[in-house]
Amino acid sequence: MVHELALAQEAVRLVARDATRRGCQQVTRVKLRCGELTAVLPEAVRLAFTCASRGTLLEGAVLDIATTPARALCSSCGVEFRPEEWLLLCPRCHTPGARLLSGREMEVVSYEGK
Fold first, then answer.
1. What is the band of 85 on the pLDDT scale with cuts at 50, 70, 90?
2. Are 38 and 107 in contact (CB under 8 A)?
3. Domain 2-70+103-113 in this protein, CATH class
4. Calpha distance 63→12 (Å, rounded)
5. For the chain, what are the domain ranges?
6. Fewest C-beta atoms under 10 Å: which of 32, 52, 68, 75?
7. Running DSSP on this structure, what letter comes out for residue 69?
């Protein structure tokens, strides 16, 4: 939960700063994108977001979380695949250590305010 709280606090900080700069009085919705390999629990992020947003212009905002599937690219044979483990073993040529293309991101996609 500590990991999720730090992420939620950073999301609140970033959105609040931008919303204030744009003249928003209240943020009503925030959309996050989390990669499936981030080890982030969506319900824990929601709870942490509720705590982190108290007393800010994000208080009461709805938090939408989209999960990005993991994708990797084999440096040996060039096949793009969905890894099933942290080893990133290519399913075609069985070479380990493919390059991760997605699945580790945690980003604010958008927000709505008034």
1. confident
2. no
3. alpha beta
4. 11
5. 2-70+103-113
6. 75
7. P
Task: Tell me the pLDDT tens digit for each residue of 37-72.
Answer: 988 899 999 999 999 999 999 999 999 999 999 999
Per the annotation, binding residues for Zn(2+) are: 74, 77, 90, 93
Which of the 8 DSSP states describes residue 1? Answer: -
Annotated binding site: 3, 74, 77, 90, 93
CA gyration radius, the chain: 17
Q: Both tokens of residue 93?
A: 């040529």
What's the rounded Cα separation, in Å, for the pair 10 and 19? Answer: 14
pLDDT at 114 over 70: yes
Cα–Cα distance measured from residue 63 to residue 46, given in angstroms and rounded to the nearest whole number: 7
Q: Residue 79 has which token pair?
A: 């096949």
Sort 94 into a burial class: Cβ within 10 Å, 0-12 / 13-18 / 19+. exposed
67: which DSSP letter? E
